[in-house]
């Protein structure tokens, strides 16, 4: 986890409720920090691991492509 200024104060956080690939054409990769790129790649890995086994084989190939890690 990244260090957060004021992180010593107890606060609420967020958990992922839905799992779907984030469409790459909507992402300006040049604006992402290394931490954001890592988060996106970990999120897509989670999507692939949890959703992949539940869908048809032909859709799995699309999902693998949609969840391919991005460079950073």
TrEMBL record:
Q: Which InterPro entries does the record cross-reference, listed alphabetically? A: Creatinase/aminopeptidase-like (IPR036005), Peptidase_M24_C (IPR032416), X-Pro_aminopeptidase_P (IPR050422)
Keyword Hydrolase present in the record's keywords: the answer is: yes
Q: Which GO-annotated molecular functions does the record name?
A: aminopeptidase activity
Q: What is a single Pfam family found in this protein's UniProt entry?
A: Peptidase_M24_C
**Protein name from the UniProt record:** Aminopeptidase P family protein
Q: What is the lineage of its organism?
A: Bacteria, Pseudomonadati, Pseudomonadota, Alphaproteobacteria, Maricaulales
Q: Which residues form the Peptidase M24 C-terminal domain?
A: 10-70
Name its species: Hellea balneolensis
* Keyword terms of this UniProt record: Aminopeptidase, Hydrolase, Protease
């Amino acid at each position: 986890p990244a260090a957060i200024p004021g992180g010593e104060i107890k606060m609420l956080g967020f958990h992922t409720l839905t799992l779907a690939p984030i469409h790459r054409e909507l992402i300006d990769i040049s604006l992402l920090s290394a931490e954001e790129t890592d988060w996106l790649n970990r999120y897509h890995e989670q999507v692939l691991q949890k959703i992949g086994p539940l869908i048809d084989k032909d859709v799995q190939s699309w999902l693998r492509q949609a969840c391919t890690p991005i460079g950073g």
